[in-house]
Amino acid sequence: MPEATNKIIIFETLDSTNIKAKELASQGAKPWTVVRAVKQEEGYGKKGSGWFSPEGGLYFSVILPKSNTDDLQALTILAAYIVAKVIKEAFNVEPLIKLPNDVYLNGKKICGILTENIIGSDVKSSVMGIGLNTNTEKFDSELENTATSLKIELKREIDNEALLGQIIEGLRKTLATISQ
Amino acid sequence: MKLKIKDKEYDVEISDQGAGGQVKIVVNGNAYMFGKAGAAGEISAPQTALPKRDFSSKTIKAALAGVITEVFAKEGDMVKEGQKLLTLSAMKMENEIVSEFTGRIKELKIKQNDKVKEGDVLIVLA
Question: Is B63 touching A (CB cutoff 8 A)?
Answer without folding.
Answer: yes
